[in-house]
Amino acid sequence: MGDASAGVFKECAIAFVPSSTLAPRQIGELSSLIQDNGATVCEPRRDGSIPIEKVTHIVSNTIDFPQFTESQAVMIPVVTTQWIASSVHRRKQANVRPFSPDPRMIFSEVVVTCGDLPVMDKESILGATMALGGQESKDANKLTTHICTLSIDHPKIRAAKERDWKGKVVLPHWFDDCFKLGKRIDEGPYLLPDPEILKKAPDEALDIPENNNLEGATSAVPDWLPLPPNSDVVRPPATVFQDRKIMLSEDLGITKRLRTAIKDTIINGGGKLVDNVERCDMFICQYRDGPQYVQAAQSCKEVGNLSWLYFLIVRNEWSSPLRRLMHYPIPRNGIEGFKDMRITVSNYGGEARIYLENLIKACGAEFTKTMKADNTHLITARNTSEKCKAAPEWGIAVTNHLWIEESYAKCEMKPYNIKKYNHFPPRTNLGEIIGQTFFDESRLRELYYPGGEENMSPGAKRKRKILEAAGDNAYNHGPAEGVVIGRPGLDKGFDVRRDDSGEDSAKKRDKASATVTPVRSRHVAPGKENDTPTIDSSTGGRSAKNKARDMLHNIASDIALYEKEKKRSSKSGGAPWGGKRAADLAEKEKLEKSKSPAQEQGHGDESERKRPAKKPRPSLVEVELRIVVTGYTRWVGDQHREDQDRRKLRDLGIQIVQEGQACDYLVAPHIVRTVKFLCALARGPTVISSAFIDKVLETGTVPPADDFLLKDKEAEARYDVKLQRSVGRAKSNRGRLLWGVPIYCTEKIRNGTDSYKAIAEANGAIFKIYRARSGTTIKPTTAEEDGGAPPEPVYLLSSTNPDEKALWERFRDMARKGNMEPRVVAPDWLLDVAMAQQVRFDKRFLVENFFANDS
């Protein structure tokens, strides 16, 4: 450990945001690095959120996380992991601007030096580049990414080539075209020594580029629920909905079957479907109108459409519905001014063409596949097609897609003669930059949901302040419009700790709910913004059929329990059940025997009169709490008592679910390293003491569950964990702690492979049985093929019996050939990682060390 008082990150408090581009295992490595250099790592709260009031920097490789807007409001800089690497390399903190993950900072991570350019051109290029996230370097060093010059013979280039420099030499035209568009285009056509823009004519053929920005965002009305990428069999749980309450608007017009599929997906991910705007966190609708939409938007709920919901399900990562134009509800009557327009498209292909067609229709204009004299506009990716040549002669306005995108985003028709809407780089198809325009929330509010302050809850008022503060801190014009570059140490403007969803407010809500009904949910975590979903069966207006379906869904576990008990009792020769139901069965059998054949054939009315009247089964209350129970001694060896207690709990709205299912709480008498405990912990439930169940069964009421938080200092010391910290990390990781980490296991390991497989896969690992045969090998690669990256670890779980030892050397050889670092470890390493919810490694877990004293 370095001297913290003299570290690069002295007095920095840094929080990390896990994502598909920043895995928890990388976070563990970076956390150790910054702590060695004087920083404090801010762990997530128990609800998985970042403690904004404590941090000075947020490290994230994406802006797609729920608290990004809040970080903008209080000017906390959000930087990529490259900021850490650059700071450590320079031995001083790097400027945050060049390391923003905001895609609107188009020259982020560009380090440029200039060659033989006029002084004024050089200053213009460097100034604009740095304003948009780039950096200047005096000479071409290892960190320099671009040399901007007119000649390949410049001394800087010769010197760089002698040092085997890996960057790009570009013409200044590239920077100029990027500035004019406000987007970063591919520099390929501008590369020296043989730049395509000087070599080929503008009208020569050009391939239509691929564009990942439109994936899952081409239409506001998707036709079907798509499958997730890289998943051929089972859709993984959509943990992006963990602890969130979602409301589906009636204007979606979806079938009951699709609605049920969406509901099951949300519930399996840990969320809940509700039918009240006030109680939802996410409101899904088709149009930007109606009282429910206005109420949800004014209350600062996350408002999106079905396309956005599907995007979250498939990606299983958070994204703001304002980030992509087709993820926000469309205006029912289009944008003012577009009604009588007829617009056609040229030089866009694939998803880009579909997207533009839908965007034109959403604006209220008519899309035409062909161009005729009555067309008003032509949107083109290049100005070289036959349509482009004919358009001026027919009086048709020619623009690129930025005109329609920015008109839709600003909710007003923009003048089509603005320079950037008419700019067409000669050897670039602008389809490569489509789909990068963001919505302007303040403009949406101004037009579609103004006012509402008098009816806002304290939480909504706080969110409104956050949105307004973020808007005030953002650039208002130019290519970087909407961007906030945080600077630590500024006045935050308002106290972010005054959160309606904070610990004090949670306790107030607990008390308030306790006065209403003893079985209402109390799942409110300190600092929590999203309470556990509840459904008030007295509101909504669902049909009887829907209620029946929901009731059947809720009693499924009771039916399964009954069938199990029936089989068990039948085997033992006893009655399948007792009490009144047994008496009813006996009476029914007696009546059946007393029936004559004639009665059975044609005298049903008489037999009906003889039947005892059936009392209707009381409807079960809504499930308010889903819990996983492990290590509970009350039920050991007493199946009958367990069944009775389960029914009592279910009657009070508490459902016991199996491991792997979404749950609100994990219940245990103390910290245990059981498979059920560790698998459930991976999804981040609040861990409470089994005394909670005892209290419920004793009193017949449901006390606030958060009053029973599990405390086990002895086990925490033994396993070197802090339970609440582990829960917060798990909430943040969302089941991806070991995402992409290959974990092999010997076939003959002690206690079998099934338990370790369940724990590893619950945390997102790639788990395989290692038999030293084909099918389990790692593809041989070199460091150069892996981009020069250092070897990543790959693990083999093993014990020390001779059959397993024989596999160790072959495993190590396989790993090294694949440019990976082999680690043969005891199974306790996996248990330790799962319990801490942090990818950490200590040499004591190496199998030869761990079992050194084994007899």
From TrEMBL:
Pfam families: BRCT_2, PTCB-BRCT, RTT107_BRCT_5. One of its GO terms (biological process) is DNA double-strand break attachment to nuclear envelope. This is BRCT-containing protein-like protein. One of its GO terms (cellular component) is Cul8-RING ubiquitin ligase complex. Residues 4-101, 102-192, 236-318, 338-421 form the BRCT domain. Residues 489-507, 581-595 have a biased composition (Basic and acidic residues). Residues 477-549, 564-618 are annotated as: Disordered. Residues 532-541 have a biased composition (Polar residues). It comes from the Eukaryota. InterPro entries: BRCT_dom, BRCT_dom_sf, CellCycle_DNARepair_Reg. Transmembrane segments: none annotated.
